[in-house]
Amino acid sequence: MRATCRTAVDAAWDTLYHSGDMPVLNESRFQIDTRSAVRVLPFSAPAFITCAVAGDMGPPELGETDARHTALTAAGLSGYRLLTVKQEHTLTVLDAEAVAAKLSAGPETALRPVADGIAGDAAGAPGHVLGVTVADCMPIYLHDREHGAVAMLHSGWKGTGILLSALRRMEERWGTRANATEVLLGPAIQACCYEVDAERAEGFQRTFGERAAVRRGGRWYLDLQYANRKLAEEAGVRDLAVCTNCTCCGDGLFSYRRDGPSGYRRMLAGIAVE
Ligand SMILES: [Zn+2]
Q: I need a surface site. Which of 130, 199, 246, 272 has the fewest CB within 10 A?
């Protein structure tokens, strides 16, 4: 299954890459080794994702404290404070200070503000890790190397476009330029597995281009990687890394689609403000 999946995804990317209708990005593609509890990602700011063997985040809203500590320690970020938000597939990106201020008022899960992205820098939120949880949705990591600002995003089909929200917010606040910002698209469900109905697929195509959904054997599949790659490129991003692990058919990652609403668990994706 894995070999078939990889072949299909590679073929789609190769077609895209050689089609000539998109300029070539400074783009790297990589796979993560999912055998360890936490993988530090190849990125210019400290960035990680937990894998399924350990350090996961448990069922939503439960049992997160120990897993958070485990994950941050394994990522070499013990002593950092983790900031998370109440994710609802929005396009909202909040400043880290605003999230920290809300969480400081009491028990974290009850007070987490609704958003799907957090942005911060060392002047405003030193010693923090910006985190989102994922299980098929894509974690997106940003690092503005000119101003030292970072952002961590949760982007599923409904929230696709939050990458642009983040770039806009970072531009407003720090003067961030997309072409000086490194973007990493983390592990997510890929076009090999992300079957959707025709209505959703066609809507996705209308918004993000024909290749953002593919049809195979009479079924429709979304391509989150394509959609976000296109958004990044059109925004002016020139430095993109793409993780090619599929959460659903690859080993060692959590998948809502594969494991179902009662059985799925979540991975923590984080980036440190330094
Ligand atoms: Zn797959």
A: 199
CATH label of the domain that carries residue 172: 3.60.140.10
Residues with CB under 5 A from ligand 1 (ion): 5, 190, 192-193, 246, 248-249
Distance (angstroms) between ligand 1 centre and the Cα of 248 equals 5
94 belongs to a structural domain = yes
Distance 51 CA to ligand 1 centre (A): 16
Split at pLDDT 50, 70, 90, the class of 214 is very high
Encoding tokens for residue 33? 């080794």
d(CA 75, ligand 1 centre) in Å: 26
- Is residue 218 included in any domain, yes or no? no
CA 28-179-154 angle, to 5 degrees, is: 65
Q: Which CA distances in Å does 213 have to 210, 222, 232, 246?
A: 6, 4, 17, 16
Contact 57, 266 (CB under 8 A): yes
Give tens-digit pLDDT for 223-265. 999 999 999 999 999 999 999 999 999 988 999 999 888 888 8
Q: Does a structural domain hold residue 49? A: yes
Chain segment 78-115, per-residue pLDDT in tens: 989 989 899 999 999 999 999 999 888 766 566 789 99
How confident is the model over 40-62, as pLDDT tens digits?
999 999 999 988 765 555 544 44
**How far away, in angstroms, is 193 Cα from ligand 1 center?**
4
| Tally of structural domains, the chain | 1
Interval between CA 232 and ligand 1 midpoint (Å): 23
Q: Is residue 140 part of a domain?
A: yes
Closest of 165, 167, 168, 154 to residue 87, by C-alpha = 154
* Distance from residue 247's CA to the centre of ligand 1 (Å): 7
pTM > 0.85: yes
